């Protein structure tokens, strides 16, 4: 009998953050998460690009990192959520993607977005007021380059020749119009772990965005929706809070200063604003069953950010996600490499 197809793929996302001033250890720990996730059967592993640490992450060069992860893993797919596209040369980016895809045996997923940091845009000589325009322009060039077309000069094509990226380009959005725009361009949809600037719960805000994307989709292939969520299981709620509470609270206070969250949130308020799922695996499973966006997603992408749990606790959390939480929601670990991205 053919096994039933799981209704979503399971991923994890790391912002490659650590504590203190030892980036080498932070990078080693993040690489180890990819190895563990690969062994546990996670379908995808993602990294976020941040050029300045105040943006919530410590990885400026994701494709260098993913090339190393490709050498240490055998089947997990490798992606960015996201690469800050307006700050990249899209042809040069396509070359990096093609190299990592070749080294990994066709396991790359590319997620792009516009970013939000004034400092990053200034450092790269770009105008942040044009971020949407730049994203659209550069995504068009990136698509052509990854399709093996000539770009910018007669006879110039990216090498090595890219694989088929028709179903492997993702776009992060923060609105219904953005979701429709992604669908119109044929990109898969990436939704963030939290909605900023809204009073309603994140899933109430984002479900109409997902619906707008699906309504606007007019391609023959299946539309794909990737949902990022803060998921941190532990033996109980108190243990989880010891690992994540202070970090989440500090992050919420920083966002309160920028206006993305209300000011002076307490810990419980901060966890609600980050739409956090934490505690015993049974508690998390029950809460995720009520998540409004999850029923329409093809990819559930779990993350711990903005928390920076101890490395052993992070590994244990991945184990609980893969062995208890996700299976209770209908996921099954992959047994063979999924090189087609299906």
From TrEMBL:
Q: Which ranges carry the Luciferase-like domain?
A: 12-275
Q: What Pfam families does its record include?
A: Bac_luciferase
Signal peptide residues are none
Which Gene Ontology cellular-component terms appear in the entry? Answer: cytosol
GO MF annotation terms:
oxidoreductase activity, acting on paired donors, with incorporation or reduction of molecular oxygen
- On the tree of life, the source organism's domain of life is Bacteria
* InterPro entries (UniProt xref): Bact_Lucif_Oxidored (IPR050766), Luciferase-like_dom (IPR011251), Luciferase-like_sf (IPR036661)
Q: Which PANTHER family match?
A: BLL6902 PROTEIN, LUCIFERASE-LIKE MONOOXYGENASE
Tell me what this protein is called.
LLM class flavin-dependent oxidoreductase
What is the organism of origin for this protein? Streptomyces fagopyri
The major lineage groups are: Bacteria, Bacillati, Actinomycetota, Actinomycetes, Kitasatosporales
């Amino acid at each position: 009998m053919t096994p039933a197809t799981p209704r979503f793929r399971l991923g994890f996302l790391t912002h490659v953050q650590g504590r203190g001033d030892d980036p080498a250890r932070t990078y080693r720990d993040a690489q180890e998460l990819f190895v563990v996730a690969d062994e546990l059967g996670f379908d995808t592993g993602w990294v976020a690009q941040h050029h300045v640490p105040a943006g919530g992450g410590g990885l400026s060069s994701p494709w260098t990192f993913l090339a190393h992860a490709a050498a240490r893993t055998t089947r997990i797919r490798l992606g960015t959520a996201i690469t800050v596209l307006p700050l990249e040369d899209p042809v040069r980016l396509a070359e990096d993607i093609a190299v990592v895809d070749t080294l990994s045996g066709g396991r790359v997923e590319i997620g792009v977005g516009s970013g939000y940091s004034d400092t990053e845009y200034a450092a790269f000589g770009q105008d942040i007021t044009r971020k949407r325009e730049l994203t659209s322009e550069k995504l068009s060039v990136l698509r052509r380059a990854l399709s093996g077309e000539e770009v910018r000069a007669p006879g110039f094509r990216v090498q090595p020749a890219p694989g088929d990226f028709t179903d492997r380009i993702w776009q992060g959005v923060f609105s219904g119009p953005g979701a429709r725009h992604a669908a119109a361009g044929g990109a898969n949809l990436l939704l963030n772990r939290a909605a900023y600037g809204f009073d309603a719960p994140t899933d109430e805000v984002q479900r109409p965005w997902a619906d707008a994307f699906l309504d606007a989709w007019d391609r023959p292939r299946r539309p794909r929706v990737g949902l990022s969520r803060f998921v941190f299981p532990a033996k109980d709620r108190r243990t989880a809070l010891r690992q994540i509470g202070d970090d989440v609270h500090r992050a919420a206070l920083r966002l309160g200063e920028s206006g993305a969250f209300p000011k002076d949130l307490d810990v419980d308020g901060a966890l609600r604003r980050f739409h956090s799922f934490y505690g015993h695996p049974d508690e998390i499973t029950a809460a995720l069953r009520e998540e409004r966006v999850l029923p329409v997603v093809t990819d559930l992408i779990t993350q711990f950010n903005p928390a920076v749990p101890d490395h052993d606790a992070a590994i244990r959390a991945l184990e609980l996600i893969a062995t208890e939480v996700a299976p209770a929601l209908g996921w099954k670990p992959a047994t063979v490499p999924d090189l087609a991205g299906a």
